[in-house]
Amino acid sequence: MALVETLARDAWFARCSPALQQLLVAHGHELALGAGQLLFRRGDAEADLCCVLEGALRVGSLRADGREALLARVEPVQWFGEIALIDGQARTHDAVAEGAARVWRVPAAHLAPALDAQPQLWREVAQLACAKLRLMFEALEDIALLPLAARLAKRLLLQAQAYGSRSAQPRLRLAQEHLALMLGVSRQSVNKALGELEAQGLLRRHYGEIELLDVAALQRLAQD
């Protein structure tokens, strides 16, 4: 499959103007990562825009006391890294390969001047950041208002849809401990909530995977 066709599987890239699509393809290069390898670290000054082509990356942070915060698990063909590109400041989180992965990386040193030459394209990059900001606001509201089962259903659906990047996939390669980190609760709490949803016939757990059996019911639960 041609690179443009692969990247166009992402909803944001597919909506981009041909001019921006051409910039992202022309100025980028493929990068292979091994399991546990950092793509970038929190505080790094570089601001490259990236897209996962194969595998998955965890985006979060590890504190000095060993506590980990997991913001998202990024899969094909999601774009990320736009915040530093837009504001020119340091990276906000670490991005580490979960296993072997391939990433399309567009260096800011080439992309930013090209965008400055066509300033209307910056709006399209901002739309990528705004879509994620809306999800963040919704997640903060959910913490205050929704029970864990509803939050869990919503997170599973978001992960299945790659946070709006694609249509829902029925099987998720997602460890329970990572799901717990993303929700900010204990693994035991997630395990119990998953068991309740499994008992209702909404999903099935496999080793390292979660299979969504009734997406419509999960959507109704997520809206409660």
From TrEMBL:
Tell me the keywords, alphabetical order.
DNA-binding, Transcription, Transcription regulation
Record flagged with keyword Chaperone: no
Q: Which GO terms describe its molecular function?
A: DNA binding; DNA-binding transcription factor activity
Chain segments annotated as transmembrane: none
Q: Which GO terms describe its cellular component?
A: cytosol
What the entry lists under Pfam families is as follows: cNMP_binding, HTH_Crp_2
Which residue numbers delimit the Cyclic nucleotide-binding domain? 12-106
Domain HTH crp-type span(s) in chain numbering: 146-216
The protein here is known as Crp/Fnr family transcriptional regulator
Q: Which organism is it from?
A: Inhella proteolytica
